[in-house]
Amino acid sequence: MARIDVIGCDAGAPKTMAAPQHQLLSCCDCLLASRRVLERLQPWSARQEMHSMDPLDTALTWLTRRYRQGKHCVVLTSGDPLWFGLGRVLLQRFPPEDLSFHPAATSMQQLFARLKRPWQDVTWASLHGRTTDNLVAKLRHHPSALVVLTDPCQGGLADVAATLRSTQMISCYDLWLAERLGHPTERLRQVQPDALPADVDPLNLVVLLRRPNPRLAPLPWFGLDDGIWHQHEDHPGLMTKREVRVLLLAELNLPRCGVMWDLGAGVGSVGLEAMRLRPHLELHAVERRVGAVPLIRRNAFTAGCDPRQLHIHGASALTVLHKLPDPDRVLIGGGGDRRTVLEQAAARLKPGGRIVLPLATLEAFASVQQQLGDAGLEIHSLQVQISRGCPVGGHTRLQPLNPVLIVSGRSPHRNPPAI
């Protein structure tokens, strides 16, 4: 009766294979494997008809013919055949009931065994025949560990490093290169993104391990990278991106001194960068998410802000606004009762003050413009579409961020009363 056993193995096969798999090798009629493994099998497995895996199309044609003849076939492949292996192709060609899979450790399992690190929290991205879009999407969630399955022809170590730069995460991660895992010549080494080695073996994996504290170069005066900000573990990536942050700060037109409200502050990135630009500005950051207060304080320390000018309120905006001094500038983020918050902020805004809101939907954009106009504020609005350059096969493509609508309301200056 026709049958195909698909056996995963490591670089030491057949010596390192378990006894049940050895038994399958000894009793099968046909054997399909790589040339390297076939050479090792020749001395003790002479009765089986053997065929090389390369080229794959020819090998699959040979396997199909033997299967139709009712032969018992064994296919030797690396790791787990059903994890980026030959298993998917075989399931497309043969009935599942005639296939049996015997997995070995995957390259990812071997990698974390070498690193001596638990890997239940690991995410992965593949560059095999793909652009770096998947890698960019995973990085936006700030994973604690991210394995990149590289493709020598499409995307390798240099593309991973370039993607770290384009997503502004280069200060967040240590970069490790694993080459020829399981082979006698295997190598695991940490590499520096700005000094990549030239002697990279084509058989490699790249792993990014998040640093508990980013290694920071001297911070720029304006436009801090996304990677310097600590984020909520349960909601990573929910942060105003650098390019949008720059535009929000421009719309705020910060005074040299005064009071700023940052309502729905998130991780505090916009308000804290405002403090860096205007050290005498008094910032009231309001964020109701659990853990926001210590997180914003941590980011304030990272950004070098004066703690005496910073007031953090771990509550919803409507419960604390009455306690805050009247503002010169107001930034209103997402969440909560925006309409009521905006109404109270407009009523308290000092002459010449500004309210700025980043928005994600057209409905919110129309509603906010109407409300600012009804409050007697001068309105300025714009739509922002930012794309970042990302590597793709030795070239550069543009990776778009989500579009943002920005609405600003300015309170007119009031003339002083006549004497």
TrEMBL record:
Give the domain of life.
Bacteria
Q: Biological process (GO) annotations?
A: cobalamin biosynthetic process; methylation
List, alphabetically, the InterPro entries matched. Answer: 4pyrrol_Mease (IPR000878), 4pyrrol_Methylase_sf (IPR035996), 4pyrrole_Mease_sub1 (IPR014777), 4pyrrole_Mease_sub2 (IPR014776), CbiE (IPR012818), Cbl_synth_CobL (IPR006365), Cbl_synth_MTase_CbiT (IPR014008), Cobalamin_biosynth_MTase (IPR050714)
Query: Does this entry carry the keyword Transferase?
Result: yes
Could you list this entry's UniProt keywords, alphabetically sorted. Cobalamin biosynthesis, Methyltransferase, S-adenosyl-L-methionine, Transferase
User: One Pfam family of this protein, by short name?
Assistant: TP_methylase
The GO terms this record gives for MF are: protein methyltransferase activity
**CDD domains from the xrefs?**
AdoMet_MTases, Precorrin-6Y-MT
Q: Where is the Tetrapyrrole methylase domain?
A: 7-190
| UniProt pathway annotation | Cofactor biosynthesis; adenosylcobalamin biosynthesis
**What is the name of this protein?**
Tetrapyrrole methylase domain-containing protein
Q: Which organism is it from?
A: Candidatus Synechococcus spongiarum LMB bulk15M
